[in-house]
Amino acid sequence: MTQYKIPVIPGDGIGPEIIREGRKVLDTAGERFGFDIEWVEYPHGADHYLKTGELISEDTLKELSQYKAIYFGAIGDERIKPGILEKGILLNIRFYFDEYVNLRPVKLLEGVWTPLKDKTARDIDFVVVRENTEDFYIGIGGRAKKGKSKKTLEVMRNMYSVKFGLDIDSDSEEIGYQLGLISKEGTRRVIRYAFELANDRNKHLSSVDKANVLSDIYGFWREEFTSIAAEYPDVKTDFNFVDAITMWFVKNPEWFDIVVAPNMFGDIITDLGAMIQGGLGLAPGGNINPEGTSMFEPIHGSAPKYKGQNKVNPIATIWAGALLLDQLGEKDASSAIVKAIEHNIVNGEVKTYDMGGESKTSDVGSDIARLVKEI
Ligand SMILES: NC(=O)c1ccc[n+]([C@@H]2O[C@H](COP(=O)([O-])OP(=O)(O)OC[C@H]3O[C@@H](n4cnc5c(N)ncnc54)[C@H](O)[C@@H]3O)[C@@H](O)[C@H]2O)c1
């Protein structure tokens, strides 16, 4: 029997209760598909921070680097200033492990309501590959008051480092500015990942940018996309401006198979994706480094007001667990879990409040685990 060791960070708020159900379903999938999971639990989150002052240490990150995939609940707690835990733990993990792909399946499951009129599960089934490390989210920028000033801005990566020396001479009362950057290395690896995915699915890849206005940065993105496209002659491609693609997601979601986007636009369009696939309780995500340590999580937060009530929907977390198994190569177990989720929803008997039901988080987890065994 294959043995896996999977580190798990349940986190804050509803994190522990949704992760419990995810583990239940993944353990059951293991029984059926012939693997065994040893879960290695990590305490990181609000309580741990308040008790010890530690967000996540270099030693812990080093220890985590021996694993292929981390299972993550959610973090965020009202006792701690917004952003501290998210930056110190979640973003730190994504950055440390260079998880350059943010993978977001946008799939309307059978039986789920979508706000898009006349669209069904047949129409909404695509995957967004969002670049996860560059673009306008590299965090360099500043403010400058009227007059002359200097500023040095640096981007340090394993793959490269870049230094900007700015000589600012402004007669505006005050300015705020932000630099966005994409590198050849960073752009090519995420686009290649998306082409590989498209090659394995319906051989259609749509690129997102705003090359008509931000032509230096996204013109570069287009060039790299075009150069890699030449290696995949069987994959049909198209370019979409980000404003237009939000329109097409609503009007013709059936057009899309795989969508690849730079970081900021990817962030925006995946929230739209979450809504058309039925809302936050149903949207999983993966932060992937195909050669290193990846992390899988629901995209929603820690919903502190529901903490400990056994009330929220565990489906996004269970689905994130299916993505994790896919990353480990357990393809059959992964698709059995997605099918079991779908059956649970179509049966319509065991569902949480957000889907119009009264069942508990643990009831939904148990029902999906039962279905994994049966279907
Ligand atoms: N990845 C993460 O860990 C992550 C992501 C987003 C927000 N956060 C943090 O979570 C905390 C709460 O943030 P928020 O309230 O803006 O967002 P949230 O996603 O935690 O919750 C917003 C609302 O969505 C609904 N919801 C969320 N998950 C649900 C589920 N599984 N089932 C049913 N309904 C669900 C609830 O009504 C909830 O009040 C903050 O501290 C925030 O920083 C963490």
Please describe what this structure looks like.
- This protein is of the alpha/beta class and 375 residues long.
- It is 39% helix and 28% strand.
- The chain binds nicotinamide-adenine-dinucleotide.
- Residues 74-76, 82, 86, 90, 280-281, 297, 300-305, 312-313, 316, 354 line the site of nicotinamide-adenine-dinucleotide.
- InterPro entries: ICDH/IPMDH, IsoCit/isopropylmalate_DH_CS, IsoPropMal-DH-like_dom.
- It comes from Candidatus Methanoperedens nitratireducens.
- Pfam families: Iso_dh.
- Its EC number is 1.1.1.85.
Q: Tell me the total number of β-strands.
A: 12
Q: Considering DSSP H and I runs of 4 or more, what fraction of the residues is helical?
A: 25-40%
Which strands sit side by side, in order, in the main sheet? 2-1-3-12-11-4-5-10-8-9
Overall pLDDT level? 97
Roughly what fraction of the amino acids lie in strands?
Answer: 25-35%
Largest sheet: 10 strands, mixed
Order of helices and strands: EHEHHEHEEEEHEHEHEHEEHHH
Uncertain stretches: none
Count the helices. How many?
A: 11
The CATH H-level homologous superfamily of the largest domain? Isopropylmalate Dehydrogenase
CATH architecture classification of the largest domain: 3-Layer(aba) Sandwich
- The CATH topology annotation of the largest domain reads as Isopropylmalate Dehydrogenase
The general outline is globular
Cα distance spanning the termini:
22 Å
Whole-number total of structural domains: 3
Cα gyration radius (Å): 21 Å
CATH class of the largest domain: Alpha Beta
